[in-house]
Amino acid sequence: xxxxxxxxxxxxxxxxxxxxxxxxxxxxxxxxxxxxxxxxxxxxxxxxxxxxxxxxxxxxxxxxxxxxxxxxxxxxxxxxxxxxxxxxxxxxxxxxxxxxxxxxxxxxxxxxxxxxxxxxxxxxxxxxxxxxxxxxxxxxxxxxxxxxxxxxxxxxxxxxxxxxxxxxxxxxxxxxxxxxxxxxxxxxxxxxxxxxxxxxxxxxxxxxxxxxxxxxxxxxxxxxxxxxxxxxxxxxxxxxxxxxxxxxxxxxxxxxxxxxxxxxxxxxxxxxxxxxxxxxxxxx
Length: 284
Ligand code: GLU
Description:
The chain has helices spanning 17-32, 51-63, 79-91, 102-109, 148-154, 174-181, 196-206, 222-232, 262-267, 272-278; strands at residues 4-7, 36-41, 73-74, 95-98, 119-120, 123-124, 143-146, 185-187, 211-215, 238-242. By secondary structure, it is an alpha/beta fold. It folds into two domains: 1-77 and 246-284, 3-Layer(aba) Sandwich (Rossmann fold); 79-199, Glutamyl-tRNA Synthetase, domain 3. It binds glutamic acid. Glutamic acid binds next to loops.
């Protein structure tokens, strides 16, 4: 299959230098491999995403010199596919309804007999309060969690993946998945929509992504994605996690870091090659 990669921003803020690096690197790698570059708008969090930020993403990326295939996949238009994946996991008996709030989880996780709360890629590791609740007991305000122990038991061999970037691949073991990752949320209680981990896995497969190129801040999420791919019978791409662009204090750039927004550099007269130089890429 032809090398196919994607850039998958969420329109919850302005694109900054870190996004520019990720998008340009993926685009450069696709071009070098004579492959395909796709864009995906990760806009399931409707409370934080705005049409203006989305419009600005297209505008900034085009200005940077990127081209992508159309139509662009917008996750808000693809929720039926995520619901179908949730149904499949539910039919396998791997999901349970959870009514815990963040405060409940923090409290339960730091109860004296539990010791210090454990942290995984999604924050505090879920202490399992609702694990024995039955599916029939769920209410409209429940989240849905993956029963990680059951999920790993279902697979005779845990899947593995290849990594070509800055992070050696993490080996998937049952202990890592149950004790470090834990019972992650796959459908959110607030928006009732599929969580990031599920939508990203469904869409990478639907878009035929062979190479996922993204920041190393997401490297800890990759074992979750690889596990979900195995459970859902989807192919596992090759992963390439890249270094993060940092500010002068060594802090990684955040969405609210408008001082490094591409739009601001543009308004100050920077050229696309100036941006490439700032993030350490050769001129186009
Ligand atoms: N939407 C995610 C973000 O903006 C990236 C998802 C991914 O590349 O897998 O951080």
